[in-house]
Amino acid sequence: MNIHQRSSAEEAKEALGRCLSLELSRLKHERTPTLLLFSGGSALSVLEAIDPENLDSSLAIAPVDERYDPTESASNFAALMKTDFYTVAREAGVHLIDTRVRKGQTRDALADSFEKSLREWRKTNKEGIILALLGMGADGHTMGVFPRKEQGEFDALFNSERMIVGYRAEGASICPERITATFSFIKNFVDRAFVFLVGTEKQQAWTRAILNKDPTHILPINLIHSLREVEIFTDLRYNTDTGSGNRTP
């Protein structure tokens, strides 16, 4: 786990954009099929910092979680469609996995459809690489995975054999009906994760994440300690006496 601390959110975003661009450039040069999963919220803005020269038809992009909102006002994919990055990606031939709610589609049917798309990509691109752009909320949630009181209930949802699950996130202030990648999927299939973690309101959860004393059902962001390779970009304080991993100035 590498932690890249910057003096502002904008500097952290630009640094993450450069890091992700370099990774995409390498994979494009090697002609490696790549799936990039992105989070909504502040992490979505990082996509705008990616060098468009590194986008082509070997790349597929999808949200790592979605909000079940038939109006699309809270949809992560709909938010992506409003960005300049979306227009550039389409023109470059990037495969965009649309996770908006179809007419009459239930939450669980959307989860099944999304999982089918991911499994089809994996089957077609067995040697492909999966990258994930993640964020964190002030309560320590990541992706669409919110804290839950009971570990058994948490594990049944997020540590199952499924790649995608639909559920009601009681702690969500916006659109509690959620569709999200499971921890099982992220741990078993994501080759490299990039985490965008900015905003003073997240300092307490970030400090707890560094200490890594909370179980993931209480502090879901602690998932980062179980991933293969993680690059964290933040404007928050980092105490090297209590933290772990490598810090870059």
List keywords for this structure.
249 residues; alpha/beta; Rossmann fold; 7 helices; 11 strands; globular
Summarize the SSE layout with pairings.
Elements: E1 2-5, H1 9-29, E2 34-38, E3 59-63, E4 65-67, H2 76-81, H3 84-91, E5 95-96, H4 107-124, E6 129-134, H5 151-158, E7 164-168, E8 177-181, H6 183-189, E9 192-197, H7 203-211, E10 230-234, E11 246-248
Parallel strand pairs: 1-10, 1-11, 2-3, 2-6, 3-5, 6-9, 9-10
Antiparallel strand pairs: 4-8, 7-8
Summarize the structure.
The chain has 249 residues and is α/β, with parallel strands linked by helices.
Describe this structure in words.
With 249 residues, the chain is of the alpha/beta class. It has one domain (2-248): Rossmann fold, CATH 3.40.50.1360. 31% of the residues lie in helices and 20% in strands. The protein contains seven helices and eleven strands. It has an eight-stranded parallel beta sheet with strand order 5-3-2-6-9-10-1-11, with helices on one face. It has a three-stranded antiparallel beta sheet with strand order 4-8-7. The longest helix has 21 residues, at 9-29. The radius of gyration is 17 Å and the shape is globular. The two termini are 15 Å apart. Residues 242-246 have low confidence and may be disordered.
